[in-house]
Amino acid sequence: MQKKECIAMLLAGGQGSRLGDLTSAIAKPAVSFGGKYRIIDFSLSNCANSGIDTVGVLTQYRPLVLNSYLGTGAAWDMDSAHGGVRVLPPYATQTGGEWYAGTADAIYHNIDYIDSYDPEYVLILSGDHIYRMDYTRMLDAHKEKNAGLTVSVIEVPWEEASRFGIMTTDSEDRIVRFSEKPKSPDSNLASMGIYIFSWKVLRKALLEDHDDPTSEKDFGKNIIPRLLSQGENLFAYRFEGYWKDVGTIDSYYEAQMEMMDEDPPFNVYDKSMHIFSNASVYPPHYVGEQGKVNDAMICNGCVVLGEVEHSILASGAKALEGTVVKDSIVLPDAVIGEGSTVIRAIINEGVTVKPNSVIGSADGPITVVGESSPFARIG
Amino acid sequence: MKKTIGLISASYTSRDFGGLTDERSYASLSYGGRYRLIDFPLSNMVNSGIDTVGVVAPYNFRSLLDHLGDGKSWDISRKVGGMYVLPGSVYGVYNSHSKFLMRDFIENRRYFERAEPANVLISGSNMIYNMDYRPFIERHEKSGCPVTFLYKTVEGDVPGMYLDVAEDGSVKKINYDNASGKKLFLDCMVVEYNFLMNFIEWFGTLDYMDIVEIMMDQLDEIGADAYEFTGYVGNIDTVEDYMRVNMELMDKSVRQELFEGDRQIFTKVQDEAPVLYRPGASVKNSFIATGCIIEGTVENCIISRGVQVKKGAVLKNCIISQSCSVLEGACVENVIADKYVTFNPGTEIKGGEKTLVIRKSQSL
Questions:
Q1: Which of A237, A315, B5, B315 qualifies as a cystine partner to A299, CB 3.0-4.6 A?
Q2: Using CA of residue B134, residue B164, residue B124, residue B131, what is the dihedral sign?
C-alpha cells in the first residue's frame, strides 16, 4: 500500500470520571459540546482540515455511542478506501487479552495498525480538548528541527502552571525537563497532550517501555521521561490560540458559556477552519408564540415554547410551555417539562425533566441532572 | 409487499413562480428552512422499504443533483438497488407542466426492466406529506387492479386533478376539477410492472402526453383502484401555495406529523453551527435553521441556514432562503427572498396581498 507521511492516533478511551453523570453512559469524547457537536469533533475536524486522512481511534470505556457516532467516518470526509477512521478497541490474542493499561499501552497494542501505513510520523491526540489547530505547521516544525518528539505547548498563567504537565525549554525550545503538575514550576509552558513522534523513535520507546515492569505505560509519566533520559531530540511547539481541556464540570460549562460572548474566544461561526460533525437530521428549530429567546444558542430540532436566556439548547432539546431556562446547557433530546425553572444547570442527554421542577440556583455549584436525578421522569 | 421500485418525477416545473423556479424544478424548491420538496417523496419511499428509486431529472438539473448527490443522505446509495438519476425529456413550452410524460417512461424503460419489480410506485414532487406507502402497496396487490391512485379528501377549491370513485372503490373518472367529488389525486400511484410495460408498448406513439391523461380515457378498460391518505398534505402549485404551505408548519399538529413521528424526513446534511441569538433578539412563532445569527426581531418567519438578521432589523411573515443578510434597521414584511439576497440598512420592503418574491443575489 502507498506509504502515509503522517497518521494520527486519537486516545478516546478515558472514562472522564470528573464529568460525573455526563459520562455515566457514554465515553467523554462522545459527550455533547456546543449544542450540535461532540467533544471528539474538534480533534477529528482538525485532522480533516490538516490533510490527515488516517486516524486510529482508541476506545475502551463505554464505546457504544462513540462508535455509532464515528460510523464510517464520512461526516469528517474520512470514509476513504486507504485510511480513514478506524476504531481500535482492546483485543485478545492467543496468549490472552487485556485492557489498555495506559495511553502508551494503547498505542503499543496497535503497532501493527500503524506499521500497515508505514508512516514517517505519528500524531498522538486526545479526544477531549476544544481547539482549532493546523497540525501541518507543527509537523513542519518537527521536520525542521529534526526532532524525535515534538510536544505542542501553550503558555498558561503562572499561578495555574502547577495543574499541568510543564515543559522546561532552552532558548531554542528544546525540552530540557518535563515535570507533571510541579509544586513550584520553573516554566509556564503546559503540554497540550498533542505529540508528533518520528515513528521509528516512538516504536522503539514503546517496545522498551512494554518490557519495563515498573512503567505505568503512560506518555507523560513514562515515554517522555524515557526519551529525555536517552538524550533524544525533544522540542516544544508553541501554540497560540484557544485551547481548552473540558475535563471537569466547571470547565465544560464555562467553555460552552463563553461561546455566547460578544467576542467569543472560540468562534464556531468562523469558517476558515470548518468544524465537522455527524449531525442527525432534524428540522429547523421552532420558537412558539409565547417563546422568548435571548442571548442563546439553539440547534436544529429544538422547540422553544418557554423562555430561554443565556443558555444552549442542543439538537432536539425542548423547553415546553411556561419553562424558564437560564444560564444552562440542555443536552441533545432532553425535554424541560411544562412550568419548570432551570437555572445554572446541565441537563443530560435524553433526560426528561418532570413538569414544575425547580432546578439549580444563580449561585453555588452547577447542578447536573442525569437519569437518576429525582427531577428526571422515569421511562 | 412484493418487490416495488420507485419513480419520482422531478422534471416538471412552472414559469409562473415569481422567479423561484427560473433555475430549478419544483423538486428542488426549499421548504421549511431546511428541506427540498423532493425530500418528501424520496424519504417516504425509503421509509417504506423501497431500496431502488429512479429520479427523472429536469433539463436544468444542477440544483437538484447538488442536493441529491449519490443519495447517501437518504441511505439510498446502495450496491443492491440505490438511486438512479434518469434523463428527463427536454420539454417544449407545451409540456413543461406535464408530470408523468410518456416519453420519460419510454426513454427510461431500461430502468424498470433491469429491476424486474412486481410494482412501480410513481410520484410527483410537489406535495408535502409523511406517509408509509406499505399499506397502500399491499392494498394495491390485494385488489388485483393494475393501477391504484392515491388521493386525499379535501375541502375548498384546491386546484388539481380529482378522482371520481364508485361505491365499490374503483375509479370511474379523473377530472381536472372537483365538480364530481373532493378526492384530490396526490400525484402518486402504484402500477403493476407488467401492466406498465404493456401500457408503454400500447400507447408509445402518444409520447408527448402525460400517462395519467392517457389513463383517464382508458379507465373502463384498465380498472383502477383508489387509496385514501388521511394525513396532512401540503400541495404546492403556485407561489401563494408555497407561502401558505410553509407557514402551515407553525401549526403544531402539522409539525408533529411531518417531523416528530417514527418516519424521519431525510435531507442533505449540512455542517453549520447552531443558531446564535444575541442579546436584544426577539423571535416569535418562527422556524429557524442552523448557522443563523439573530440580533433583530423575527415574527412568523421561515428562515434557512446561514441568514444574518442584524440589530434593529425586523422580519415579519417572510420566507428567507439561505445566506441572506438583513442588515441594520431593515424592515421586511410578506416577502419570499431567494438565496443570497441582501436587505441593506434601513430598507423597507412590504409585500402586499400578492406575495413578493425577491430573486437570487439581489441587493436592495
A1: A315
A2: negative
From chain B, pick out residues whose CB is under 8 angstroms from the CB of A330.
none
Whether pTM > 0.80 for this model: the answer is yes
All CATH 2.160.10.10 domain ranges of chain B, comma separated, are 276-358
pLDDT in tens, B321-364: 999 999 999 999 999 999 999 999 999 999 887 789 999 999 99
Cβ under 8 Å to B: A residues 57-96: 74-75
Helices (H), A109-259: 111-115, 135-144, 199-210, 224-229, 249-257
B277–A297 CB contact, under 8 Å: yes
- pLDDT exceeds 80 at position B92: no
The CA radius of gyration of chain B, in Å to the nearest whole number, is: 21
Question: What CATH code would you report for B4-259?
Answer: 3.90.550.10
CA distance readout (Å), B132 to B48, B163, B192, B326? 5, 21, 19, 40
Cell of A184: 513550584
**Mutate which of A286, A290, A297, A326 to test chain B, going by most B C-beta atoms within 10 A?**
A286
**Between A35, A269, A281, which is nearest B266 by CB?**
A281
**Which of B35, B279, B304 is closest, CB to CB, to A294?**
B279
In what helix (H) or strand (E) does residue A38 lie, and over which residues does it extend? strand A37-38
| Cell numbers that stand for B91 in this block | 420539454
SS (H, E, C) chain B: CCCEEEEEECCCCCCCCCCCCCCCCHHHCEECCCEECCHHHHHHHHHCCCCEEEEEECCCCHHHHHHHCCCHHHCCCCCCCEEEEEECCCCCCCCCCCCCEHHHHHHCHHHHHHHCCCEEEEECCCEECCCCCHHHHHHHHHHCCCEEEEEEECCCCCCCCEEEECCCCEEEEEECCCCCCCEEEEEEEEEEHHHHHHHHHHCHHHCCCEHHHHHHCCHHHHCEEEEECCCCCEECCCHHHHHHHHHHHHCHHHHHHHHCCCCCCCCCCCCCCCEEECCCCEEECEEECCCCEECCEEECCEECCCCEECCCCEEECCEECCCCEECCCCEEECEEECCCCEECCCCEEECCCCCEEECCCCEC
**In chain B, which residues fall in CATH 3.90.550.10?**
4-259
What CATH topology corresponds to B276-358?
Answer: UDP N-Acetylglucosamine Acyltransferase; domain 1 (2.160.10)
Q: Which chain B residues contact residue A260 at CB under 8 A?
A: 276
- pLDDT score recorded for residue A279: 82
Report chain B residues whose CB lies below 8 A from the CB of A291. 283-285
Cβ contacts (< 8 Å) between B255 and chain A: which residues?
283, 286
A273 touching chain B per CB within 8 A: no
Is B312 in contact with B296 (CB distance < 8 Å)? yes
**For range A58-78, the mean pLDDT:** 89
Q: Which parts of A40-188 are beta strand (E)?
A: 54-58, 84-88, 92-93, 96-97, 121-126, 129-131, 149-155, 165-169, 175-180
A74-105 pLDDT, tens digit each:
899 898 888 899 999 898 888 888 888 899 99
